[in-house]
């Protein structure tokens, strides 16, 4: 199955508009003349979306700009109204946002997002034709307690509850072991591959083999230029969701270069 790898920068709460501009200008100049067989996505903080949209979609003089897709890091599960501090999917659409990261472990752990909330957000995103990057992953205690598979099963089953097969085709799953996020500890390629194969088997149980072989599953958690190739060489890993190492244009580019040359055709 030919799955196009997807490399997404999750900037978290880093880079306002001016730093976004510096990054994009430098990144695009490095990208110039290179054509990687993958999708490249940047997820800045909400307030930097207008600047990113402007740089990538309205400043037509910028070469290669259309090679990059824009993602948001979250969205509301509601349409509009009295939800202080929230951002709706329609607001995101105004800034050429195509992807939205949902269910990130920081949203789950710090902001108490449950599988049901994440499921509601995935549905809302699909109503607006946004493509969710749906994050799942176990904590170290869960892994060490032998609960890896049951945790992933619950997250996948509840997160995708009542999502149609048609909508599934526009969803990317990001497997991110919580113990590997921002810690410098990466899952070994064998640990990552085993978890990805298990997640794909869960999708097969829910939607059938075809849908399972089509869905892209990114790995996230301390992906760096020097481990991207080995991880991306695994048959069930279809790209990466990158935090810390995507804050520098050069290292994000090297991850894309090293990773996309390895990905399965
Ligand atoms: P990291 O973050 O690359 O800094 O580990 C990944 C993520 O949280 O998506």
User: Strands of the biggest beta sheet: in what spatial order?
Assistant: 1-2-3-4-5-6-7-8
Assign the CATH class: Alpha Beta
Tally of strands: 8
CATH topology (fold) name:
TIM Barrel
The helicity comes to 40-55%
Q: What is the 3D shape?
A: globular
CATH architecture: Alpha-Beta Barrel
What is the chain-wise order of helices and strands? EHEHEHEHHEHHHEHHEHEH
Structural class: alpha/beta
Instruction: Please give the radius of gyration in angstroms.
Output: 17 Å
Features:
TIM Barrel; alpha/beta; 8 strands; binds 2-phosphoglycolic acid
Please give a structural write-up.
The protein has 265 residues and is α/β, with parallel strands linked by helices. The protein has one domain: Aldolase class I (TIM Barrel, Alpha-Beta Barrel). It is built from twelve helices and eight strands. An eight-stranded parallel beta barrel has the order 1-2-3-4-5-6-7-8, surrounded by six helices. Helix 7 crosses helix 9. The radius of gyration is 17 Å and the shape is globular. The mean pLDDT is 94. Bound molecules: 2-phosphoglycolic acid. The site of 2-phosphoglycolic acid (PGA) has 13 residues, from strand 8. The site of 2-phosphoglycolic acid has 13 residues, from strand 8.
